[in-house]
Amino acid sequence: MAQKIFFTPGPAQLYPTFEQHLAVAVREQLGSISHRSKQFRSLYQHADEQLRALLDVPASHAILFTGSATEVWERAIQNGAGRETFHLVNGSFSKRFYEFSAELGRTAHRVEAPFGEGFDVDQLDIPPSVELVCLTHNETSAGVSLPSAQIHALKARYPEALFVVDMVSSAPYPALDYGLVDSAFFSVQKGFGLPAGLGVWIVNEKFLAKAEALKAAGGYIGTHHSLPSLWKNAKNFETPATPNVLGIYLLGQVAADLNRVGAAAIRRQTQERAVQLYKAIAASEGLEVFVRTPDHRSATVLVAGTRGSAPALIEKWKGQNLVVGSGYGSYKEKQIRIANFPANTDEEIAQLLTAIGQA
Amino acid sequence: MAQKIFFTPGPAQLYPTFEQHLAVAVREQLGSISHRSKQFRSLYQHADEQLRALLDVPASHAILFTGSATEVWERAIQNGAGRETFHLVNGSFSKRFYEFSAELGRTAHRVEAPFGEGFDVDQLDIPPSVELVCLTHNETSAGVSLPSAQIHALKARYPEALFVVDMVSSAPYPALDYGLVDSAFFSVQKGFGLPAGLGVWIVNEKFLAKAEALKAAGGYIGTHHSLPSLWKNAKNFETPATPNVLGIYLLGQVAADLNRVGAAAIRRQTQERAVQLYKAIAASEGLEVFVRTPDHRSATVLVAGTRGSAPALIEKWKGQNLVVGSGYGSYKEKQIRIANFPANTDEEIAQLLTAIGQA
């Protein structure tokens, strides 16, 4: 059977080197090694170093592993806010992040934009009582991005609050300034082109101090995956519980591959491909670009409205072994979502552009 | 390089069919499929059905997936007790389970036995205010087991309380009666011979009702991994967040392999090998059986005291490509731990028996 090419927003196309790294992992019996061994610690250290280089993460920030990025929503709020959080909500995922805060008993403020629209951060007013500002760099359901520059500008106006950035469906694309961003996180089954089952949480010392203060005041900040517990273990390149060892190994290897290409080159390629894809969608008879404001259009998850039935188009493309994502929730019938992640080759993008041209 | 044979208590030797299942997963591109697809749901359903058959889990219980068994410690207490838990503690892991309850703000009762000793459940007195009784079928640090019959006898005396059984380092060995056991859990990197990164939580309707009551009373029971959230998704063979898809697939396949052997045959084999291994340890000049009471000796994680240096013996055996576990914590210098999991072949056990005879 012919192999499918995935342009889905995650799980997504696997990075071209995935199979070769997996073969090494099997040969070296990494599925059996102890998570308290030197071999595991150097494997964690390698992933840490490669991610630091790729994303420009300074020593003030730790790189921690969880079960998923969804878990980081919970852990970040538990450890970063005792009472109040602030959220920008413009789709299903930023909304769930917001809802987690209320489920955790916090007062969650939100500013909402309609599905498909972004924010003008200059107009935002964040109450001084807010401890944690939760931003979504890329709203996966709507294909709307909050540009890094906007995130940095907002933080500059509110230096006291902790800022956490969900970059689940955009990392490693956003060039975040970790001098301003206290925390950011992603999962590996999107822009890193790996199988699901691992969340990555980047978080700084100020965030850790907040978690420790919350705990000292009698707050509940989690057990094995409290920030102090994760942090303490990470200083020794270990984890509080047995982690997805294979996932951490593969992430380190793919991050190293991405570093060989270079972060700047990957970002440039992502931008160039996004321009081509949006242009093709706009020119296509059967498709239209969903997000109106060009500055808010995501470079990594592109949403297109379909003139005809979206499921029919998805089926047609599947026949050509091109797999794109369906529209989210109630947009299933009239939208498709196209991921633009580094795992896809130029040739695959060319095939997709041809299909878009014929839609 | 010669392949190592692992007799470590987890991560452990991979099941002999692991590579072949992994090759299928890669060929079928399971790392890229959507966790909201029919393909994923049938993969979850297959794992569910195979685990049900293997462990004799009735329809009253759901089979749920978490990031790790450690996470289940947290989720089980969050969802099963608003105020009070009761723990049998006789080693590092049952102690951590106990500590989680206090970290979660519960009143945690404990009955403690010295390291290497078990319990006489007839003598136990559980306060009527206890909502959740937390038992460890196999204390991995000390090689001490709490036999299933004892667990069942204790529950028969306290039918009102919820019972949860940690069988992390013994599943699929314990033949638990799920008419009595409300919940049990394990991780896949031990007796199932798979890479780490997945916890399995078996839990019944009574436990779910408790979680819902706690939530209704304003308690915090978790966000995406609250029991009601996991349960609702599992009814549709889905998960609240993107799970370790590959891990669930591999677990279903290995459970099917184990079913082909048969649960009874696996248990018999585990018992027979344990008898042989304990006999060899007792007869060896350099080793002695650590757990004094035969009824308390674990069949799946065997602890042996060493007359000489334990690290030296471990190194010597590594030279023969036989990898056993070190003694836990302060027992590192004077003990080794030997896992007896279904993944090892008769030939591998024979090699280990020879090495033990020469120790």
How are the SSEs placed, and which strands pair?
Two copies of one chain form a homodimer.
Chain A lengths: L4 E3 L10 H10 L10 H18 L5 E6 L2 H12 L3 E6 L2 H12 L3 E6 L19 E5 L1 E2 L4 E2 L2 H10 L4 E5 L16 E5 L11 E6 H12 L10 H8 L10 H17 L1 H21 L3 E3 L11 E6 L3 H10 L2 E5 L8 E5 L6 H12 L2
Parallel strand pairs in A: 1-13, 3-4, 3-5, 5-8, 8-9
Antiparallel strand pairs in A: 2-10, 6-7, 9-10, 11-12, 12-14, 13-14
Description:
Two copies of one chain form a homodimer. The first copy, chain A, is an alpha/beta fold and 359 residues long. Chain A folds into two domains: 5-13 and 263-357, Aspartate Aminotransferase, domain 1 (Alpha-Beta Complex), CATH 3.90.1150.10; 18-260, 3-Layer(aba) Sandwich (Aspartate Aminotransferase, domain 2). The first copy, chain A, is 40% helix and 18% strand. Chain A has eleven helices and 14 strands. In chain A, the strands form three sheets. Chain A has a seven-stranded mixed β-sheet, sandwiched between helices. In chain A, α9 packs parallel to α11 (346-357). Chain A is globular and about 60 Å long. The two termini of chain A are 25 Å apart. The mean pLDDT of chain A is 97. Chains A and B meet through α1, α3 and α8 of A and α1, α3 and α8 of B.
